[in-house]
Design brief:
Mean pLDDT of chain B: 93
Number of strands of chain A: 20
Helix content of chain B: 10-25%
Largest interface: A-B, 24 and 24 residues
Helix content of chain A: 10-25%
Largest sheet of chain A: 6 strands, mixed
Low-confidence stretches of chain A: 4-10
Radius of gyration of chain B: 13 Å
Strand order of the largest sheet of chain B: 1-2-3-9-8-5
Number of helices of chain B: 3
Structural class of chain B: alpha+beta
Mean pLDDT of chain A: 95
Order of helices and strands of chain B: EEEHEEEEEHEH
Shape of chain B: globular
Oligomer: heterodimer
Radius of gyration of chain A: 21 Å
Amino acid sequence: MTNKEELKPEIALPLAQTPLIHLALELKARLTSFGGWEMPVQFTGIGHEHQAVRTAAGMFDISHMGKFVLRGKEVISQLQYLVPSDLSRLQPGQAQYSVLLNSQAGIIDDIIFYYQNQYANGEQQGVLIVNAATTSKDKAWLLQHLNPEQVELRDLSREKVLIAVQGPKASAALQTLVQEDLTQLKPFGHLEATVLGQKSFIARTGYTGEDGFEVMVEPEVGVELWQSLLKAGVVPCGLGARDTLRLEAAMALYGQDIDETTTPLEAGLSWLVHLDTKGNFIGRDILEQQKGAGVSRRLVGLQMQGRNIARHGYQVLSEGKVVGEVTSGTLSPTLGYPVALAYVPTQLSQLGQQLEVEIRGKTYPAVVVKRPFYRSKNRPAN
Amino acid sequence: MTLEYPDDLKYLDSHEYVRLDGEIATIGISAFAVDQLGDIVFLELPEVGDAVTKEESFGSVESVKAVEDLNSPVTGTVIERNEAMVESPEQLAEDPYGEGWLLKVRLNDSSELDDALSADEYRTQVEGE
């Protein structure tokens, strides 16, 4: 066999490790490089880990993700200028998934902004979680655009551990280690909570399409939290299962499905674009044009009509002519058939549209289907 | 996990094995390859009657995360392919040297295997990787 495609893009630079790497090594996890980090790709097997999150509970070390705390008099109003979403609607304790845009409305990164508090002196504080590989790029962008007199940025990326606990039994497993009542948290809700006796940050968010939580803690608490969850039967999961889970839920992966050449309207993220309720922001004019004229291409969900798996970079064809490209694809462990995300011309993006994907020199039929491919029945109501 | 490399097989450094029985070669992939791939989800094999060529790709094996080419250790004609594995590729992991074989090929020239690795040579290679 010769390697054609693997989750192993670069090995030249020394890789960063999270404070939990020794726990993954103890469990004999297989490691891979991802966004400059040495990360577990699988522990017991992607299928088993995937299934655990869909039916019970799994946990992921996501400490590689970028973590910024923003504090100051103008956090919301300043950040408003960098994203297409209307952050002024947020109350403390609520969060918004959004994107940082460049002047062409290309996506610099996808982010979650957790609005934590407005203090008596008028200062606001929030947490911004960003992708691992884009952390330094995002930080430079934020520092360039946020007025330091009005917004102070603290980079906690290397200081904190982030653990995602996901699945229908995540709430029960995590609750035993947390003082506050987690059932009170709505999806995207978050709070400062006491985890194993330490003040920590918990959000009801995740990247799996299941109910779940993301917990930001000090490294020593992170180690104890991981071990306690392991004892409680929560299945350790790697980036492999994280990818199949997020793809079934049709959540975009930065650098693959979205990047600086794609706009949120093309990427099917129009629900993040609030042109009517907010003022000027970077990229607004391009989004207005795209909204007026319509986008020329769209990111769609594809279901393969056989067992051949469409993968990142494969060409999409219509009547024998190349029309687009697959951005992500896998065999869906839950559904049992291959699914993919692909950019195709808008006129070929309707549900039910028949297309083809070229796989190792042959073309195979695919059909445009609704996203997400899989929707959990276990998620709490908003 | 201790991986097995049966002594009666020849191996390629690209992780295919071949079992020679007269002029019939049975081709599969090693336990090491199966372990490295993880969950195998798809197998693409040539049809019966197709020709395969030494050192050329005859198909592919896919796990959830990776696609890899399968290289033929020999030149010859496919006389049988393992339909059970095509149907249920995930079962390949259970018995890669037995039930998990992939192709049976009628050889043109058995001396083609002279440069293939012995079990010991292959073990040294992969365990040193």
